[in-house]
Amino acid sequence: MELGETTLTIALLLSIYALAAHIIGIWKKKIELFDSARIAIIGIAVLTTIASIWLFNLFITRNFQYEYVALYSSLDLSMVYTISAFWAGADGSLLLWAWLISIYIAVIAARGKSYDNLIKHAMPIILVTLAYFFYMLLTVSRPFRMLDFMPVDGNGLNPLLQDPGMLFHPTTLFWGYAGVIIPFALMIAGIYLSDDTWIYRARRWALWAWLGLALGNMFGSYWAYTVLNWGGFWGWDPVENASFLPWLTLTAFYHSTMIQERKGGMKFWNILLMLFTWELTVYGTLLTRSGIIASVHTFGESVTAPYYINYMIVVFAATLALVAWKYNSIQSKKVFESFVSREGSFLYNNWIFMAATASVLWGTTYPLLSEAFRGYKVMVGPSFYNQVNVPLGIALLFLMAICPLIAWRKASISHLKRNFSKPLATALIAVFIAFALGIRDFYALVVAVAGTVLVLSTHFMDISRIVNKQKKLEDAGTLKNIARAFMNNRRTFGGYMCHIAILMIIVAAAGAVVYEQAQTFNMRVGGTYSVGNYDFKLTNIDQYARGNKDVQAAYFDVYKNGEKVLANAEARMYHYVKQESTNVKPMAYTVGFDDLYFSAQAITADSATVKLKVMPLMFLMWIGGFYVLILGILVCISTVVPIRQRAISDDINVNQNTKNIITENVYET
């Protein structure tokens, strides 16, 4: 039997054994069964790792007798993209997903002390899913299927996927996809056991998954910006949306957990949000890897769609049945005394995120529904998404500004005046200054200026409050007070830094969309054309071979106010000989606060037709977006401690020797 399928078969058998050992161990209360199950789980990870390394080896050695290798690689494909071809199709992607899940649960199994009753009840949910994935890998989605002959060469990789972004976009998404199942399983176990502590255990895993999804979406956005030749960063493509949907619900879940942790409220919200997140994760894989929707992001067609759909139906129905059975034990405490309160702001946050999720899901699914009922697919354009989600985004932005300073339980008029008069005045002054500087666009003024300044002001005020409270505990000097406040409030500080990253993305989007300048010119060598404040001079045209493609390049020098600010900027066109296709390779360069975007439409021996764009503040998109990696790590290390008491600060862990200093009710801050 072939090595890859042998290891997957054994992994399937071990999954079934570990599942049975958990069920019998819970039923019969036999501890020794859990010990053997943990060993089996580690064995699953080892076997899945061997299978994955074997598939990498098959690509590297160009073993085209394996159908999957022949479909997605070729002799002329560079080594780096030969390796990335592992996840170019549905079969390899499913193996990657199973591999990551197996590693996650092996980490849990290896930590014996944390393998408590909640984990013992959560693990069967993961093992059932993993066994199902192994079954698919051995039947309908076989990366190790062999041909009856050895092809001389393979089909090669889709030229659009031969980009560095494809090294990171799918892998980070599946890092997130694999991570989502852990908090989902903990939720199921918590409901079954009537154990509310699942929320604390799930939060850190949810954040880990959120980080993967966030980075995956950012890498996908950057790939679209630098590969797809339309000069944008988010086109509301159906498959693009598929990875965005679970990020929306997981973001809502992470915020909503704070109410359950602190006050025992919003339990049903958290259950539904976690269920939707896992369902949308599987749905995203269905869209991306099954080919049921045409998209520039699809990775080929597959016969796996019915398997994913059946899985989603069973999981959804079983979860709702469990919730109905345990309904009385998962009742939330009544925590909403006023709509004008911090509890209320979390509720509004959930509604806004769910409204955004519903609109994106509807637009993404509509082509399938139209085909089912009309007989043909009707695609939903970006205008629909923008009309619905831009107002929701503005509401969310201002809610982000309100939440840090609004009181728990009920905010009085005097409280609102005291906490929000200065931020509102600062935002208003910023709008007047921006207007005086020539900014007239409504969205730029309201969103990029007023909204951003308001959020920064309220966040700064709350940080000042936390530092001052730390000073009351122990005044060790300004820098030490800030450092200790930071360490004692990592969750708060990390969350605020994530908010700042979102602000950077919003400002970049406003600048690039509202103030973009674009012109298309047919230029001869030596000619100069202007866009905005920049002059573009075509200096040379060249043609050369690079790897598996021929490259045509037009070179530009760029001037601003008579001074050269960029030399030898390129606009490229790639011709892939094997695929007999020509692709435009957009090039973007950051000059000062602007991105200069070059997109060749045609290149001849002495002329070029090129679209030139000037996109202000675009660089903030990538700084803000990829900054979440550091921010996520920062928040991940925050201490998970149930908040059950009145404390001197929302997040400070009060030492034994300072408990007597507690004098203020946090619900009134």
Description of the molecule:
The chain has 19 helices and 9 strands. The radius of gyration is 27 Å and the shape is globular. It folds into 4 domains: 1-157, Four Helix Bundle (Hemerythrin (Met), subunit A), CATH 1.20.120; 163-409, no CATH class; 412-488 and 639-668, no CATH class; 517-620, Tick-borne Encephalitis virus Glycoprotein, domain 1 (Sandwich), CATH 2.60.98. The protein has 669 residues and is α+β, with helices and mostly antiparallel strands. Mean pLDDT is 87; it is low at 640-669. A hairpin with a 2-residue loop joins strand 3 and strand 4. Helix 5 (90-110) crosses helix 7 (165-193). A 5-stranded antiparallel sheet has the order 2-3-4-5-6, with no helix packed on it. The protein has a 4-stranded antiparallel sheet with strand order 1-9-8-7, with helices on one face. The chain has helices at residues 3-28, 31-60, 67-72, 79-84, 90-110, 117-139, 165-193, 198-227, 238-263, 267-290, 305-325, 342-374, 382-402, 413-436, 442-473, 478-488, 490-514, 619-626, 628-636; strands spanning 517-524, 528-531, 534-546, 549-560, 563-576, 581-585, 587-591, 594-603, 607-616. 61% of the residues lie in helices and 12% in strands. The longest helix has 33 residues, at 342-374.
Shape: globular
Q: What is the share of helical residues?
A: 55-70%
Order of helices and strands: HHHHHHHHHHHHHHHHHEEEEEEEEEHH
Number of strands: 9
Which structural class fits the helix and strand makeup? alpha+beta
Distance between the termini: 67 Å
Largest sheet composition: 5 strands, antiparallel
Strand-residue fraction? 5-15%
The count of domains is 4
Mean pLDDT over the full residue set: 87
Roughly how many Å is the radius of gyration?
27 Å
Number of helices: 19
Low-confidence stretches: 640-669
The order of strands across the largest sheet is: 2-3-4-5-6
